[in-house]
Amino acid sequence: MTIHAYAAQEIGGKLEPFEYNPGSLNGEEVEIDVEYCGICHSDLSMLDNEWQMSQYPFVPGHEVVGKIAAVGDRVENFRVGQTVGLGWFANSCMKCEWCSTGDNNLCADGEGTIVGRHGGFADKVRAHAGWVFPLPDNIDPAKAGPLFCGGITVFSPIVQFDVKPTDRVAVIGVGGLGHLAIQFLKAWGCEVTAFSTSPEKEDEARKLGASHFINVKEEGALEAVASRFDFIISTVSADLDWVSYINALRPKGRLHIVGVAPNPLSFGVFPLLAGQKQVSASPTGSPHTIEQMLDFTARHGIETMTEMFPMSEVNAAMDRLRNGKPRYRIVLQR
């Protein structure tokens, strides 16, 4: 068979029509007819080989929603025609200590959907059945793709670090990740503050669920919220005033980072030590946590804010993301 995709032949190259033969379907894999595929900033990073692990020709796309087209002979939990989603991971070893205890996303042999594999900017994509997830009926398939990367990236820390409904929390950045983090934390029961460098986003942040909005460009804005928050999540890929955000934590508070800052973090140990504070980071999330996120999303009516492009206009969509213009996620429709 032939899969029709869009691939770059070189670092930062234009995405052009590309065909490949995937070979026979592995017994534990499923094949998905792609209907929608979100574009994540990680697709740009991989296209540009920022992380020094891209292979060319490179087919991006790891926020896939579509219907099962075929199942391997050892797959029992999926049926042809079922609507499913696929995110950053397409496989893991399923037998190491991390996989056997449910933290498959920490598997040393985990395979990214677009790392050494061809991704979802295509008519079909394949993955291990353990990393493919049924989509609840009341989640719109056209808006669901970003949940499988951006959504789980900000939802997983809420579960992993036992954020409580009574906590005062803050989200750094009102963007592709941040607009989902605000909605999740609001629905979780928290009092949510949005930090942003864009004052024009205040009304939108409040509509998403933020009780407070802080323009961090204003002089003294961070100092005014010292010792206020139990949990702060940074969703931006930028170098920040880390010391001020650590000072904004209450004792035992946590600053958690899911955006990839370009440079090493620098701050003194004493503010952490004195307040028993923590700084942490995490990748996407385990299969079980993805299932929890989907259930939570469906239950609370959480939606990604998306802009739609036909897949044939993939280069225009990538340029729009590169220039920082979308609000807040782009989804390709095949």
Task: Write a structural description.
With 334 residues, the protein is α/β, with parallel strands linked by helices. It has 2 domains: 3-149 and 285-333, Medium-chain alcohol dehydrogenases, catalytic domain (Quinone Oxidoreductase, Chain A, domain 1, Alpha-Beta Complex); 152-281, Rossmann fold, CATH 3.40.50. Helix content is 24%, strand content 27%. The protein contains 10 helices and 17 strands. It has helices at residues 41-47, 97-100, 141-144, 150-160, 178-188, 202-208, 242-247, 270-275, 287-300, 314-322, and strands spanning 3-7, 16-20, 29-39, 64-71, 83-86, 89-91, 111-112, 124-128, 132-134, 168-172, 191-196, 212-215, 229-234, 249-257, 278-281, 306-310, 329-333. The strands form 4 sheets. Strands 3, 4, 5, 8, 9, 16 and 17 form a 7-stranded mixed beta sheet that branches. Strands 12-11-10-13-14-15 form a 6-stranded parallel beta sheet. A hairpin with an 8-residue loop joins strand 1 and strand 2 (16-20). The longest helix has 14 residues, at 287-300. It is globular. The protein starts with a strand and ends with a strand.
Assigned CATH architecture of the largest domain: Alpha-Beta Complex
Order of helices and strands: EEEHEEEHEEEHHEHEHEEHEHEHEHE
CATH H-level homologous superfamily name of the largest domain: Medium-chain alcohol dehydrogenases, catalytic domain
Quote the beta fraction: 25-35%
Q: Span from first to last CA?
A: 19 Å
What is the overall pLDDT average? 97
